[in-house]
């Protein structure tokens, strides 16, 4: 009876695939060079401050290197250590000319967009300098395939350490203030879904899903 089922319904390749699925593959150890996804407990963990005496150690510098690499690989504007599996208060942010040019001049003006060089922020602290909130669509590498309208404070002052342990202090407004608030939220175990307009949550490729009759693959790692 089993032989009949095998001949009629199960090919050799399907059998190999089924058997392979029973074998648990070794997971890589963090820091990753991919982005963790919503549901991973680390995204709800309040990240630990980086002690000054360990900032320049190979462990911390490796986390920073992986953050930079993954940020570039995903062409993202911000990434936090929890998003690569490390529970430290470190994030990287950047809004490059390439990012800026992806928007129309009207959008740039409306959203107060301007270039922000690549910055490593260790133990960042935010002080709100403009309590007016602005709401715009926002996405996250850890919530792949979705976006939602999210309110953010218009301007903040940032106090942090850079990757060399030097203290930095600067002010940002508009879109860059949004980016940094988003990343600091990650360090506090928060996601944009906690503060979004819930009715605005949208699958970013819903139209393509319809056009292709649901036959679409959503990659979790860039080509």
From TrEMBL:
<dbReference type="GO" id="GO:0042586">
    <property type="term" value="F:peptide deformylase activity"/>
</dbReference>
<keyword id="KW-0479">Metal-binding</keyword>
<dbReference type="GO" id="GO:0046872">
    <property type="term" value="F:metal ion binding"/>
</dbReference>
<dbReference type="Pfam" id="PF01327">
    <property type="entry name" value="Pep_deformylase"/>
</dbReference>
<comment type="similarity">
    <text>Belongs to the polypeptide deformylase family.</text>
</comment>
<protein>
    <recommendedName>
        <fullName>Peptide deformylase</fullName>
        <ecNumber>3.5.1.88</ecNumber>
    </recommendedName>
</protein>
<keyword id="KW-0378">Hydrolase</keyword>
<dbReference type="InterPro" id="IPR023635">
    <property type="entry name" value="Peptide_deformylase"/>
</dbReference>
<comment type="function">
    <text>Removes the formyl group from the N-terminal Met of newly synthesized proteins.</text>
</comment>
<dbReference type="GO" id="GO:0006412">
    <property type="term" value="P:translation"/>
</dbReference>
<dbReference type="InterPro" id="IPR036821">
    <property type="entry name" value="Peptide_deformylase_sf"/>
</dbReference>
<keyword id="KW-0648">Protein biosynthesis</keyword>
<dbReference type="GO" id="GO:0005739">
    <property type="term" value="C:mitochondrion"/>
</dbReference>
